[in-house]
Amino acid sequence: MANLTKTNRRDFLKIAGTTAGGLFIGFNWASCDSPKVQVLTDEEVLSQVHDFNAYLSISPTGDVVIYSPNPELGQNIITSFPMVVAEELDADWSKVRVFQAALDNDKYERQVTGGSGAMPHSWERLRKAGATARHLLVAAAAAKLEVPASELTTENGEIFHKGTKKFSYGEMVEDASKLTAPDEVILKDPKDFKIIGTPVKNVKGKEIYTGQPLFGLDVYREGMVNAMISRPPFGMKIKSVDDSAALAVAGVSDVIVFKNNVAVIGESTWPLMKAKSKLRIEYEPDGTVESSFDHDRIFKELLDSKDAKVMRKDGDVETAFKNAAQVITSEYQCPFLSHSPMEPMNFFAHVKGDRAELIGPTQTPDRARMETAKLLDIPTENITVELTRLGGGFGRRLAADFVVEAVELSKILDKPVKVTWSREDDITGGAYRPAVRYRFQAALDDQGNMIGYKLRGVGINAGNSTRENNFPSGSVENLLIENVEHKSTITTNAWRAPITNFLAYAEQSFLDEVALAGKKDPVKLRLDLLDRAKNDPVGEIHYDIDRMRGVIQTAADKSNWGKNKDVMQGFSVYFSHRSYVAQVANIEMENGQPVLKKITAVTDCGTVVHPTGANQQVRGGVVDGMGHAMFTNMTFENGLPKQRNFDTYRLIRMKEVPEVDVHFVDSGFSPTGLGEPALPPTGGAIANAIFAATGRRIRTQPFIEQKEFSDIKLQIKRT
Amino acid sequence: MANFKLRINGKEHQVDVEEDTPLLWVLRDHLGLVGTKYSCGIAQCGACMVHINDEAVPSCTLPISSIGSDKITTIEGLSKDGDHPVQKAWTDVDVAQCGFCQPGQIMTAAAFLKKNPSPSMEEIENVMNRNLCRCGTYHKVREAVATAAKLK
Lengths: 719, 152
Prior knowledge:
The complex is a heterodimer. Chain A has 19 helices and 28 strands. In chain A, α3 (77-89) runs parallel beside α4, α14 (500-517) runs parallel beside α18 (680-694) and α17 (611-630) packs across α18. By secondary structure, chain A is of the alpha+beta class. Chain B is of the alpha+beta class. Chain B has helices at 23-30, 85-93, 102-115, 121-128, 138-151, and strands at residues 2-8, 11-17, 49-52, 55-58, 71-73. In chain B, strands 2-1-5-3-4 form a five-stranded mixed β-sheet, with helices on both faces. In chain B, a hairpin with a 2-residue loop joins β3 (49-52) and β4. Chain B is globular and about 45 Å long. The N and C termini of chain B lie far apart (43 Å). Classes of the chains: A alpha+beta, B alpha+beta. The interface between A and B is large, with 69 and 60 residues.
């Protein structure tokens, strides 16, 4: 059994206390609903708990402490992870209190928020953690009562013998914690779940709604200095720096030039913002300095390049296209995008000789530690990483650039440092969603059946811009998927639902074009292709045909697909991050104008652990997918984005969202991921509905900057 | 540097800062009131919303020298125990995803409902449209404001 040591717990309290900028005040969120519960402070509980495993400790008072190891950025894993542990424990949820665990590779295997992978990875582990503790509590009670454990039952934190309450968990904790944990435990039958599948409130809700210090930007430490950094345009390096005006700003103590960056240092943030704008930095090219018109040229060239990498090839594509009754070709393009979480990048670092203390918002604490170890040339075990709550991430916080610069400054200054990025730094600072252009081609026979399919993706620092084994691969006799990558000085990184965030839109729009050309209903086209993949698969199939069919049929059903002539609909379905989501967008005409009113989203993500959280993941994913498809653009001039803040970098707002009607398919699978899968289908559903309503096909994002879109004057309403 | 006396959440505070310092940074860096968030710095997102007297105002572009004796309320001072009707509604509806924008959303909503206790959905949307939420909790924000109006 892995144990939390007393020392670790004290360290945790110390850090939590100081991170909060003052006294760490325990808050039992459950007390809102149950005023009769006597509330101990967190310190009181933590000082007397017995540890069962890395996730779970219980105090003799019956208070249950659950540690959530994964970074919390709004996916609400900090509520859903503990729900799973508490479920198998048969805990009284009102006595559960939850803490964010620090990075600890001995205790936890995957302290990462990315790839919608937390719940799929941890589901069994969390269940075992709760079930093991329950097993030990029951064993201790059985020994005390001198009855077989099989005669005991548990419910709501209490142990019963033949229906009579004998002990609370608290009374058995001391005995139970001395027993050896079994290797195997019996897990509950899902039909007996009492906590999983219920609308449990966010365990950090109260702290969020009262403005408590939770986020990286809220970290203030004794002796800490603040830093802001001026970073170079892409493809440029520093030629000269004149810091005299910056240093003259009251409250600025230092200006430090390091690794092509210029940092301004001081006690508080505002003087640094002023000083940063007064830095006179001259840059010179250091590689290729690109502008958006360069990208347009590059896309054109590479779409016709002979040097594409073949990602998948089935059948005889050349012959299929030669024999086709009809060939359709279409190109789709998206811009770079900044992740722009509401909390800009920031991190706290304190380098003390060969040791380092890191605190802040990161999706990958282990990467933060490894890159720090590499930079400082010290062992990883000398580095601690505390996780704050993340004010959003969307993939930007998978990187560690914003960590190591804080580490480097702390080392140079020999002081604790917090680096804060301004919004402009955050938007212009890189690691974007790559810009991509796709060319799709379909060969149809005289019945309108797709006998050949070609996709070539050209991405700028996109890696593989295709998902060669996704649908429709496996359902088309002759298929060719190719990728070409252009290496650029503009940095890119995973952006929520990497690649598929745009590929799904392009592919699902193109399939709509295929349906139209073949005179088929778009839903039937997809179902026919899936039938082909099921009955006579072409090559390898990497998706679950039945689950995909399940969401398609349910979405058609829930949206009344094709049933109402006054409602113009667009269909889209996508498989990503192990889950399946189908969406239907509804447009109605009012006074001759198209109005986007509703998006129906049907998801199969396996077992839904936390229904309110899951519902919001889907709605939030739809809003995110829609906002970036419709409104957000990023263009470059001489290595710098022209959009620098939310006045020009346009994010979706409340009045721009339609109703989102969310449904889940109960497929009986274990949880298969939900942070990302709802985003990819949205743009395609909307674009297909726009086509159905207006005959305009929008192939470039953001929609709002395309003439074919502005002509139609689409409105958005909730009801 | 100049000395400013401020009335924040019913208490007097004194700070010694440059007169162009935005209230946001005085709250965060000098007074430890970090519930008011920095996100854009140009009054576009609403994460830094506070009340000046009873008006919701973005604090990121509000110079400290312009405040005088006006009464400042931050998210920390909106209620004693997090039990303002708007905060209760946010809990009931379980609004937050990442939560970073929510103090600002709550401050915008609280000032609005004080002036307009029984708003229509359209009025709610017109007001809340000024606050950005990157996670996309807009449906829940809208529902929570409507819920708060009923709780009052």
